[in-house]
From TrEMBL:
Organism: Enhydra lutris kenyoni
Mapped RCC repeat ranges: 94-146, 147-199, 200-251, 252-325
Protein name (Swiss-Prot/TrEMBL): RCC1 and BTB domain-containing protein 2 isoform X3
Pfam families: BTB, WD40_RLD
Swiss-Prot/TrEMBL keywords: Repeat
Keyword Zinc: no
Keyword Repeat annotated: yes
Source lineage: Eukaryota, Metazoa, Chordata, Craniata, Vertebrata
Superkingdom of source: Eukaryota
Length: 549
């Protein structure tokens, strides 16, 4: 399952909040803004809020998630962002909302005023259902359900496709060579635009200074132009980096072109490429050693491992990624400051992780989708079964109350039970040596590997751990006691450490008492201290100079 916690911005969210996330998009010049939806279909935003890009109605940053009330009731189908940043969002009903930076009319609302709250964009789109959105640095594209593209915003290099270089303040249909074409996929680089049509052809327009249009030249293109070099190749998807382009064919092959100063084309060098060049993804040398459900004479493992099913790039980065049919994820280009010129096999399971961990900035290249994970691990399953009367085959009677357990698990986890329950067919065991809270904590530890007790109760558990020779539990008890020590209980905890021969804990408690000697000596615990312990304490304290003026 996708782990959104890999993006640094999510460290501001609690574990409980992360568990509720179902969609997310990390954006901004430093990856410092995020929008996400929850299992309850609520939309939240968080971050620095540059140019009002969080849509909250102000430009105040927020270190805590805030609900985006203006989109209440809307479900997100897709989302993209620009460099300002500006946001373009399409709902499941095909509506378009924009907000954020707008100096170049990239919001499509007819103005150049920054949008502090989401604005419904309906001009020329009122009878259209938008299915896909894409943003360049300062221009926007949307794709409708009938295969039409509408564009607006910054147009200094022809990236809007209108045939001029005048900025476009409202949505305008991109026509020319696309007039009678059905577009199935769109993408934007920094200042260029791409479209894949249903016949597998690729059309490009906008800035071309690095050859990112793949036309064999470096001249800008103000209207859509077909990439002739891909004649006979059927393209399914296109993805754009800052100034480079990737396409994926129906045969699982990747081609790349454009800027290559970081090796983002994956061609093994750093030379720009103005024509499409094939990207060779070598299969993992170990992958074919594993049994596979797929190997057949018609589809051997070698083909499965190297066949690409997904490509990834983002206009704000110089990073490329791809995923194979066999589930392997490769990355190349700018990866955490390094220039990786050939596809590098990662340990990731999805291309999103590449951008979370290696892209600069750490943004998401698409709207992240987090599927609920209902699968329970073995450890989680065991935790659920502790003290469950419906599945237990053993009961402990402690202080008149029952604790339910499972014989086989106790025998596996504890040497004491392995011997005591070996020939014991009783289903009830009476326990009088330890209190109910202590013994319940001990049994729960066997199911969970953790304890949750007060320092005083942990002393009792320390006694039990010593009796049962559970050394790891003994260490956990000592850790709990250390974390909960204070002036009032310091002497009692010191006494327990001495009693149970916990030397490390004894030394810790002694040092605490010395460091807080004035207050500790005024407590009831010190007044009631055992005579021998008091004698030893004073002697040891004298040796370390505690009573010197």
């Amino acid at each position: 399952m996708l782990d959104v916690g890999k993006w640094p911005i999510f460290s501001l969210c609690s574990e409980e909040e992360l568990q509720l996330i179902r969609q997310a998009c990390v954006f901004g010049s430093a990856g410092n803004e995020v929008l996400y939806t929850t299992v309850n279909d609520e939309i939240f935003v968080l971050g620095t809020n540059c140019c009002g890009c969080l849509g909250l109605g102000d430009v105040q940053s927020t270190i805590e998630p805030r609900r985006l009330e203006s989109l209440n009731g809307k479900k997100i189908a897709c989302l993209s962002y620009g460099s300002g940043p500006h946001i373009v969002l399409a709902t499941t009903e095909g509506e378009v909302f924009t907000w954020g930076h707008n100096a170049y009319s990239q919001l499509g609302n007819g103005t150049t005023n920054h949008g502090l709250v989401p604005c419904h964009i309906s001009t020329n789109l009122s009878n259209k259902q938008v299915t896909e959105v894409a943003c360049g640095s300062y221009h926007s594209l949307v794709l409708t359900s009938d295969g039409e593209i509408f564009a607006w915003g910054y147009n200094n290099s022809g990236q809007v496709g209108s045939g001029s270089t005048a900025n476009q303040p409202i949505p305008r249909r991109v026509t020319g060579c696309l007039q009678n074409k059905v577009v199935v996929n769109i993408a934007c680089g920094q200042m260029c635009s791409m479209a894949v049509v249903n016949t597998g052809e690729v059309y490009v327009w906008g800035y071309n200074g690095n050859g990112q249009l793949g036309l064999g030249s470096s001249g800008n293109q103000p209207t859509p132009c077909r990439i002739a070099a891909l004649q006979g190749i059927r393209v399914q998807r296109v993805a754009c980096g800052y100034a480079h382009t990737l396409v994926l064919t129906d045969e699982g092959q990747v081609y790349a072109w454009g800027a290559n100063s970081y090796g983002q084309l994956g061609t093994g060098n750093k030379s720009n490429q103005s024509y499409p060049a094939p990207v060779v993804v070598e299969k993992d040398s170990n992958c074919c050693r594993q049994p596979s459900p797929f190997p057949t004479p018609d589809f051997p493992c070698a083909a499965r491992c190297s066949r690409i099913i997904e490509i990834a790039a983002c206009h704000s980065a110089h990073t490329s990624a791809a995923k194979t049919q066999g589930g392997h994820v490769y990355m190349w280009g700018q990866c955490r400051g390094q220039s990786v010129t050939l596809p590098h096999l990662t340990h990731f399971s999805c291309t999103d992780d590449v951008f979370a961990c290696f892209a600069t900035p750490a943004v998401s290249w698409r709207l992240l989708s987090v599927e609920p994970d209902d699968h329970l691990t073995v450890a989680e399953s065991l935790k659920r079964e502790f003290d469950n009367p419906n599945t237990a085959d053993l009961k402990f009677l402690v202080d008149g109350k029952y604790i339910y357990a499972h014989k086989v698990l106790l025998k596996i986890r504890c040497e004491h039970f392995r011997s005591s329950l070996e020939d014991n067919e009783d289903d009830i065991v009476e326990m009088s040596e330890f209190s109910y809270p202590v013994y319940r904590a001990f049994l729960e530890y066997l199911y969970t590997d953790s304890i949750s007790l007060s320092p005083e109760e942990a002393v009792g558990l320390l006694d039990l751990a010593t009796f049962y020779r559970e050394n790891r539990l003994k260490k956990l008890c000592q850790q709990t006691i250390k974390q909960g020590i204070c002036e009032e209980n310091a002497i009692a905890l010191l006494s327990a450490a001495v009693k149970y021969d916990a030397q490390d804990l004894e030394e810790f408690c002694f040092r605490f008492c010395i460091n807080h000697l004035t207050v500790v000596t005024q407590t009831s615990g010190f007044a009631e201290m055992d005579h021998d312990l008091l004698k030893n304490f004073i002697s040891k304290a004298s040796r370390v100079g505690a009573f010197k003026n």
